[in-house]
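Any chance you could type out a protein's amino acid sequence plus the matching backbone structure tokens because I've never seen that pairing?

——
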Amino acid sequence: MYTVGRLAKRHGLSRSTLLYYDRIGLLRPTGHAKGEYRHYTEADDARLTRIREYRRAGIALVEIRRMLDGNAETTVAGALEKRLMELNREMDDLREQQRLVAGLLGRADLLAEAEAMDKATWVSLLAAAGFTEADMRDWHVRFEHSDPEKHERFLRALRIPDSEISAIRAMAAAPHEILNLNRESGRFMELFFKIYEGLDREGPGSYAMTEKAYTLCQGVPDKPEILELGCGSGGATIPLAQISGGTVTATEVYRPFLDALVRRAQSAGVADRVIAAVMDMGDIQAEPESFDLIWCEGAAYILGVDKALEQWQRFLKPGGCLCFTDAVWLIDPESAPDELREFWSRGYPAMRTAQANNDASRRAGYAVLGDFSIDSACWEAFYADVEKRLENIEPVFGQDPDGRAIIDMTRHEIALYRRYPDAYGYRFHILRKPASDR
């Protein structure tokens, strides 16, 4: 018999990962001891071994569950064949990119030298073609905006780690110019996350704002099942668990944020109702119609609001609610000061008004239950916290070119907001999925 902690350690996983597998029905413990402690058997251990093998092959958790629980071997064979076809398509895309770049360089010999393209080879080819770091960044931005799914497949074909893929895609769609300074090595984003560790919240907000939005969610049951996307270190997660009384599956791509979230949940006494899971918001590992409420404060832009509205709806139960915040214009953007329009045209070209977000929500099939602006006091509290953090980290990272860029651009962003506090802000949007297809 294994406890959840012992089984997690045996497989090099986190305890939260096994709790999440239990939550989605992928790996349920055979029994519970008194006090609801989970107990896993040798059969559970063997099942987890197979789960990890399939994950290394790149198969989604939902598909793995079907493979393991299917009655016929054709279930497994079909899933593996599907994955093989996906890999073939990814390799075809990569070979096409290779041929294109080699052709631009007039260096067909490079194709013979590289049996498989990886990130380093791809970057070196672009550099040889005269691409600057800014050119490479713009290439990712255009690719992400034109075909985000193909962009993701291409990055995976380069064998880039999932966390770095999420960082690159966040950079490509980011609303903050500091994210758009990403370097092709991915080191910039790693440094960015490190500098922002230790904040009370990773964006403007408060318990009161979260509570206000939650009260606008009509028809949410007592003790709801909640999926939080881009949870950071738990600034909204803990209030959600406390206000709702439900279970919050909190997801994030950056593991240290989740570690901080777990500590906060334990201190707040809600650890039994918070499940921390590493997950990309564009690749939700859950069954359709699993949640009463989906929550996302300050991170929907990474996927793009329109795409988020479309993709996330299928994971809501009929009549379930979606709450998200987004940076929006509070004035006509055409009348905004030049320096402000220039900043946001580079940082978040897709930024629009709250009304435009509501119109898009209705087109996607939601009912709009309400929207409101995050209080300016939340912005001041957030930026005051950021400024303290910058003072602490400047002696450590201030001489590093990437660190210097993050520090300077963060201070520029803060100065712009304080000059034009009424021009833009965060807007909470509260939506509801139809109760039926009638």
